[in-house]
Amino acid sequence: MRASVPLLEVVGLGKLFGGVEAMKDVGLSMPPGEIRALIGPNGAGKTTFLNLVTGVYKPSAGSIRFDGRSLVGMRPSRIAAVGVMRTFQHTALFEGLDVCDNVAISAFARQRWMLLGDVIGSRRAREAAAASRAEALKWLAFVGLEAKASRSTGSLTPAERRLVEVARTMAAEPRLILLDEPFAGMTQPEAEALFRLIQKVREQGVGVLVIDHNIRLLLKLADAVTVLSFGRKIGEGTPAQVRSSQAVVDAYLGQD
Amino acid sequence: MKARYAWAAIGVIAVSLPLLTSGYVLYVCNLAMIFAVIAVGLNLLVGYGGQVSVGHAAFFGIGAYTSALLCVDRGWSFWAALPAAALVSGLAGFLLGLPALRLRGHYLILVTLGFGEIVRVILQNWQAFTKGPTGIGGIPPVSLGNFAFVSEGRFFYLALAFLVVAIAVAHRIAHSRSGRELMSVRDNEVAAELVGVDTTRVKLFAFTLSAVFAGVAGSLYAHMSGFISPDMFTFEVSVAALVMVMLGGPGTVFGPVAGALVLTALPEMLREFKELYLFFYGIGILLLAVFLPRGLAGLIPRGARR
Amino acid sequence: MTLQLLLNGVAMGCIYALVALGFVILYNATGIINFAQGEIVATGAYLCLFAMSGLGFSLLPALGAAILMMLVVAAGLFVLAYYPLRDRSVLVGVVGTIGVGIALKNLLHLVAGPLPHPLPSLFGTGQVDFAGAAMSVQSLGIIGITLLMFALYFVYTHFTSVGIRMRAAAQDREMARMVGIPVSRTMCLTFVASGLIATLAGFLAAPVVFISPDMGLPLMLKGFIAIVIGGFGSIPGAIVGGIFVGVLDSVVATYLSSAYRDVFTFLVLISVIVLRPTGFFGERVGQRI
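ok -> structure tokens follow
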């Protein structure tokens, strides 16, 4: 078996905000089909890392390669189009659209844009939109929310909102999804359901990078863990290795 | 089900209006319908897309002048001049939107403000081309063969037809993929971009389309009125269009129509009291913004809308 | 000759800078784009006029009286309009402040009539010789007062406790609230300050552009351009941008065409927005997720 190209390969990533070095020399390499946890105390730069990979920020240094191709300088919608999708720390749903359309949005983006068709309401355009909506429904069922498809986003519980975001990422047929604190504020049963869902996602062949503060859950879930502190990498390895790493313990204790 | 009967009733009333009233009332209705076309188009950009433009009178004016000049100077018929007006104003919208929509919302406001002023000043001063402040007169009415839409009653049906088409197009778009993407940009532009929506393309689409609608309305206006001049396409008109969108309910299909009806009828009714009317108009707009940010549609319970 | 032209351009630019300053501090504090800023400047000018012809003050005391009256007017406007609008969407904020502007303009029209009124200049019409050119004292005076105003504002917001709180509240309302700064009161103060600056702008502009109900819009438009060129949300940008616009306007009007000067300045606005939207000192266009 030939050496496969890593799904996500980040080398020497750095980011300056004004004069502040928010990130320095961070790197990681994810093979396809892995669940990777990115942990670290508050302010470690985890969300910054996510923002750099998804094109919200431009790196000041370093490279980001997805499946061998560089993501640096690509606009976010393009990064999503090549297969990198994400969720948001404070769920970002489209409150004016119903749940199904919220998920369908990412499926729409994969269709060819039919300008004239949308304006005159041509059958082809309507069928394409309906196909995307059907896709969306399928992914809503995947996360267990197909019953809420035609409801408004206001009818969702906070945990359900996160699930809709996950469905939205999957409807784009991604190869890698980045989850930003998906377990935040969840009850035990909700967290367990999300836990199993992430494993299901991996079974679909999609790589997952998770950021969260629920270390216990993450260490159980992940195949590999990368630890950040103050924008630098201070540890990496299997959950067991990281759990027993002195550097990691110090970083977290240092927070108090 | 009840909705169907309501629409049928409205349809019947609308169609028979010229038989029930005459002259001045019909003139106001015609003017309102022309503005409704602008408002429906602007609503796509503002209500569905969440982008604010305070310069749409420019596209209204570009459409009016294009149509008027082609007919008066070159003897074109309305039916040829109309698509030309739509094309020219659409192109203007596209060219303006291309750079402007890449930036944050408040820059778009200032760019459209500036553009509106630029167009007004050019219309006023480029005498050789636009005939300057004296305007263009003798614009021929719309005619179909020997049938000329000269009277208010006849023009009513023409305007009504255009309005119905405009509403139908807006309705189609709202439910289409493009419409949904537009709304996602309105609700959370950053998130939309990150889930794969080409936000610049979507905004440009809405902006250009709204310019086309305004251009078509301009052409209609020129041929209804027979005379146009630069002071008909001012910042105040841009503001009025925006208020119409807000008043009726941004992001609804019929909101802008309602807004146009109210905002056209009112000044006509209060003509003589110009500054006093305008003072209350200003206060009214402020009250609207403070108490009814979703417009009249905000008064309708949630489920019935959409 | 050119020096004189330049000077007058800079002076006019200072007036635009003051308009811009009033606008920027309000934007920074409330996030509102105040489409009534021009009308508030006009209101300030009319208050000066009223203080002179209605109450019989002489010029400088009239400015003082106008400032006192503006305190009341601005507080009222804040409570009735700007405070309710503070967290609304951009569309609602724009429409709301446009409404305020329309109401103010027409109120002025109803009360004072449409005819323009001049206001005598504080600095008279004299001239001073410098490097062989005759420089208008009025222009020098306007520039001086504007610089003084900006300096005063800087001192106020950096060295007085009230001012420092104003700045903090402007930079981050949530943080300010958590730290215990009374945010709404501070916002009101900022708005009132904005109104006072506008009054000064109106006072200085009146001898040049004449007081009329329509005087607001052109001043506001130039102020907007100044803000974009200088950097949206930046206070030093307001003065740099204002002077730039004033000089540009002057030069275009004299050497190119008086009628198209507005077109030219707007084209510059659009170019700056397209090429360098952050202006010289403006806010970062970056986003937080």
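The interface with chain B takes residues 54-56, 75-77, 80-81, 85-86, 88, 92-97, 101, 104-106, 108-111, 113-115, 117-121, 125-126, 128-129, 132, 152, 168-169, 172 of chain A (CB under 8 Å).
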